Amino acid sequence: MVKLDWEPLVVAAHAAQKNAYAPYSDFKVGAALITANGDIFGGCNVENASYSATVCAERTAIGNALVHGQNNPIAMVVLTDADHPIAPCGTCRQVLAEFCDDIPILLIDGEGRRRLTSLSELLPLQFSGEDFQDA
Ligand code: THU
Questions:
Q1: Quick check: CB of 47 below 6 Å from ligand 1?
Q2: Whole-prediction pTM
């Protein structure tokens, strides 16, 4: 596989983070994914006064890609202003697993520190539609 150039994804995630709607937590998250044909889609968290209606940055990035007819992420960046790299929440891990078995995920904190992980590391023993569709 060709070595992935993370920097355009990092730029897109920073741009998305600027548009985060996070008036309740003030915790702005930016995400960006790249699809198999090289297109990049950003996402930001979108909070709500009814807190449980909040949607995370990772999921809005996936929705953004789907809106553009693309459902095949091959890598994702997630960044925040936190003092350590923040990993996607459990719901986002499961939603990512709907569209890929395993992808590299680069986590970046507010100081620019990076931690490279992967969906299979974050979500081993995935549950998917294949587990029940032929049951
Ligand atoms: N958040 C994300 O956007 N991604 C995650 O993986 C973890 C949490 C957002 C949701 C909420 O707007 C804020 O961070 C605090 O939980």
A1: yes
A2: 0.96
